[in-house]
Amino acid sequence: MQTLKTNLRSTFLRSLPLLLVGGGLLCLSVLPALAQSGGSNVVLPKVTFGVDTAKSPQDVSVTLQILLLMTFLSLAPSLLIMMTAFPRLLIVFSILRNALGLPSIPPNQVLVGLSLFLTFFIMRPVFTDIYDNAYTPYTTKKITLPQAIDKAEKPLRDFMIRQTYKSDLIFFINLSKAPKPNTPDDVPMTTAIPAFITSELKTAFIIGFYIYLPFLIIDMIVASTLMSMGMMMLPPTVVSLPAKILLFILANGWTLLIESMVRGFR
After folding, report:
1. What is the mean pLDDT of residues 189-201?
2. Which residues does 19 contact at the CB level (< 8 Å), separation at least 6?
3. Under a CB-based contact definition with an 8 Å cutoff, are residues 244 and 218 in contact?
């Protein structure tokens, strides 16, 4: 009986490629016949791409707007990371997760999603200013595209300079060998963006250091207590992990951390 099952299995495995090839050939032979039959119940989609001559200036304008939109969407992740509150939030949440001793909880998707929506919450005044003073006047043809870009840069530049350390801004201004700006509006975006990123990294690591300290103290207390009790075979992390989670819950850690970070940006 066992030999019969083995033979049947081997026969099926040998004939499986032939069945797949035969099924593919059958589909290829049936589809053209269905397409040529012209039956009312058979609907096959047709997708075409082409370039046609513009019949009015409005057609050219719409085409350029679509190209600009596609270009912006391709650059949107970089803009989100480099010019908003996103990097500081994500770095602090990652350090908090490691300080708790949970390297994969919450998952990366949860931390990224939380950082993303908090970024929208923090950047809402800036985005509203850009929409009201740059995007809407441009779509209603009250200002030109260069004017819209200038008006969109101003609130972003003001936000980044407010969060940038003066030493970092002076460092990049001197590094660029450009004339020293008289006002914050004179700082070019090519200088403000790297200074902002450097300051955000520094601020995120400073916040992460202060977050790590209480959890490190708990680890040291638990480790020294277990050693004094002679429990050398029990890993300290087994005992310190629930203690750190309990401390974080009692302190209402998520709300406290999010509130302090949001207030730090404002």
Report:
1. 86
2. none
3. yes
Calculated CA dihedral for residues 32, 35, 39, 41, nearest 10 degrees? 100
Tokens describing residue 156 = 């972003």
- In percent, how much of the chain has pLDDT > 90? 0
Q: Tell which residue, 79, 92, 75, has the closest CA to residue 193.
A: 79
**Least confident range of 3-12, 94-103, 152-161:** 3-12
Six token digits for residue 31: 């589809």
Token duo for residue 193: 């963006």
pLDDT, position 148? 80
Determine the angle formed by the axes of helices 253-265 and 108-122, rounding to 10 degrees.
Answer: 40
Contact 137, 146 (CB under 8 A): no
Measured CA to CA, the distance from residue 95 to residue 215 in angstroms comes to: 11
DSSP states along 103-131: TTSS-HHHHHHHHHHHHHHHTHHHHHHHI
> How wide is the angle at C-alpha 119 spanned by C-alphas 70 and 78, nearest 5°?
40
Q: Phi-psi bin for 179: left (phi > 0), alpha (psi -120 to 50), beta?
A: beta
Task: Kindly give the residue spans of alpha helices, DSSP state H, lying in the chain.
Answer: 2-37, 57-83, 86-100, 108-122, 124-130, 136-139, 145-162, 166-176, 189-228, 236-250, 253-265
CA dist., res. 56 & res. 38, Å (int): 38
Burial 66-98 (b: 16+ CB within 10 A, else e): eeeeeeeeeeeeeebebbbbbbbbbbbbbbbbe
- CA-CA-CA-CA torsion sign (209, 210, 213, 215): negative
pTM of the model: 0.67
d(CA 119, CA 200): 13
Structure tokens at 199: 């300051």
